Amino acid sequence: QKVVAVDQTCIAIAFPIPIEDDCVTEPVVVSAGTASLHIQKGVKAVDKEGKPLPWVSIASISSADLPPVPAGARFAPVEGYAYDLKPDGATFEPEITLTLSIEEEDWSTLDLENNDLKVKWYDEDTRQWEDVPTTVSESTKRVNATIAHFSIFALFSEEKTTEPTPTPYIPGRSGGGGGGGGGSSYTSYTE
Predict the structure, then answer these.
(1) What is the pTM of this model?
(2) 152 closest CA partner among 77, 75, 48, 93
(3) How many helices and strands in the chain, by DSSP H and E?
(4) CA-CA distance, 109 to 115, in Å (whole number)?
(5) Which residues have CB under 8 Å from 130's CB, separation 6+?
(6) Residues 4-28: tens digit of each pLDDT
């Protein structure tokens, strides 16, 4: 007797890549659910062994199946926007774009006054979530991330921090007696 289990929360879609001499020969857009990969013509795309990359896949994964967020972190995953990009170890030069199109019902629940949206990748070696360059378009409800390799990527809501305001120190003059030293200046930060 043989039992076959199907995980319906994880759907992987593989797409061939038109490639010659390690470079993509025509622009490629690969879409799956709310995610799409944009690979421009001329991008060097290789697998972990340095061979031309023949295919890519996007697998949607649930937030429950994501690697853990560190205790005390100021960020949390946005449910429904996590993907495992394959093959593992694939690299791109220059970088490619991962676009997440946020559904209206999800967008309306995000507190963008107090939180930033950021895409992060999971570093298996350090067991940490790392930021990738991310831009957010409120008008199109899209989040674009610039990525150079494949891994697990997820959208996170991260608590905004206030930038410290520099307050310059202006040294006073000291005088008398044989003249005092001018002193040095420094910058302190206040929140």
Answers:
(1) 0.78
(2) 77
(3) 1, 16
(4) 11
(5) 120, 121, 122, 123
(6) 233 444 556 678 999 999 999 999 9
